Amino acid sequence: MTDFFNMGGYAFFVWTSYGLAFVIFVANIIAPIQRKAAIIRQLKRRQRRGETT
Fold first, then answer.
1. What is the model's pLDDT at position 53?
2. Under the phi-then-psi rule, with left for phi > 0, alpha for psi from -120 to 50, and beta for the rest, what region is 43?
């Protein structure tokens, strides 16, 4: 098991790559959700004010 985690001496590079890929993957899920919520808030605010554009 230690050999698996050591990755033949390249563990730092391999695990850093996995970590970075995971962070980017999560960001690609969260960013659009947050953007959608911000757009909906903005549209609701405009609707309350009676703005059309």
1. 57
2. alpha
